Amino acid sequence: MKTNERLIEALLAMSAGVGVLTTAGILWILVVEAVHFFQQVPLSAFLTDTQWTPLFADKHFGILPLVAGTLLTTAVAVAVALPLGLTIAVYLNEYVAPALRNTLKPLLEVLAAVPTVVYGFFALTQVTPFLQRLVPGLAGFNALSAGLVMGIMILPLVSSLSEDALGAVPRSLREASYAMGATRLQTAFRVVVPAASSGVTVSVVLAISRAVGETMIVAIAAGQEPRLTANPLVPIETITTYIVQVSSGDVAYGTLEYNTIFAAGITLFVLTLGLNNVGYWFRKKYQERYE
């Protein structure tokens, strides 16, 4: 028995170590390659320049336009996925019979299995023409349609994880709310959702991280024009889109232009790491409040 337990512990430790070593290896490659870039481009210019044109004759290496495009499409996606996902989670957990919930939830999660390239072409060929009839001046490539479709893509992530968090709230809290005269809707949004706020926060942070790292939707529907703007009606470029653009093979390996993808990659890594840490902090804060 002890031998079996030690073997299981070793396998679990090995599994955890693979994840840690993989992350460390990715970070090591990014750092080593990014050093070559920052040996030629000052970090101050990288963080403060408002233009990103490393493939043009007049070269600028300011990452802010790419970060702005990434955050803009992510903000639109979260604005769609958060209210819809939370509403769906409340509906599935508080209003639907268990048998029907077990049918609807897997059907909703099928959205997560749709290839992102399909979402991208759907945004370009269906959503953008529809929005152009509603929004005058909307460009053919824009952050709005890409963000809306990205919100649909991450919707199952928010709704499924939020529903699991709502389901973990003790039944006694609901019964106490009903005893105080609250309706089912009041109980759901004023008692159950706050009690499950840590789990809901985790679902939102994971959805944001997923949206920040999305590539195909923004590459197809948002355009490839890096600009420092908060206007979702114009073409933009995200960090992932630029990495795909340079990695297509048109830029020679080892050049300064090629090394920009590692500088952009480490920026994306730091951005995602920061979002995850913020989510962890919020989760711990709400856990301490409601424990």
UniProtKB/TrEMBL annotation:
Domain of life per record: Bacteria
Transmembrane segments: 7-31, 63-92, 104-124, 144-166, 187-208, 261-282
InterPro entries the record matches: MetI-like (IPR000515), MetI-like_sf (IPR035906), Phosphate_PstC (IPR011864)
Domain ABC transmembrane type-1: start-end pairs: 67-279
Membrane topology type: Multi-pass membrane protein
SUPFAM superfamilies membership: MetI-like (SSF161098)
NCBIfam families named in the record: phosphate_pstC
Function: Part of the binding-protein-dependent transport system for phosphate; probably responsible for the translocation of the substrate across the membrane.
Family label: Belongs to the binding-protein-dependent transport system permease family. CysTW subfamily.
Protein known as: Phosphate transport system permease protein
Organism (species): Hymenobacter jeongseonensis
